[in-house]
Amino acid sequence: QLQLEDSGGGLVQPGGSLRLSCAASDSTADVNAFAWFRQVPEKEYELVGCLTVNTGTTDYRDSVKGRFTISRDNAKNAVYLQMNSLKPEDTAVYYCNAVLRGGGFGSWGQGTQVTVSS
Questions:
Q1: Residue 78's CB: how many other CB atoms inside 10 A?
Q2: What are the tens digits of pLDDT across the range 9-53?
Q3: N or C terminus: which one in the chain shows less Cβ crowding within 10 Å?
């Protein structure tokens, strides 16, 4: 089972930047897309954005467009979420996962906490 390990979160001031990392445990040959999600307490999981492997195209929810960028490093078997111009509303636990070509997702990691506060 493909496992994703989230890291890179922390406490930043509004307007600051963070880069989150998503390390894959095994080959990602069967991955159709990588996606980043986030969740705040008592709220539903929210799709932040995704990167489609075959095309390299990315898409983002409206609230983060122009501020967040998803990228992939094949050599490191990792996916990244670069977050710029962070806002307090971005505070959440962030998770990455893989959408598999055969259907379903990889295994969820523990997530990484991002806190944006002055």
A1: 19
A2: 999 999 999 999 999 888 888 999 999 999 998 899 999 999 999
A3: C
Q: 30 — phi, psi (to 5°)?
A: -95, 15
Question: Nearest 5°: CA angle at 64, between 3 and 11?
Answer: 70
* Residue 94: C-alpha distances to residues 4, 31, 38, 100, 114 (Å): 12, 20, 4, 20, 7
Encoded amino acid at 27, one letter: S
The first and second tokens of residue 10, run together, are 């922390």
Which two three-digit tokens encode residue 108? 């969820």
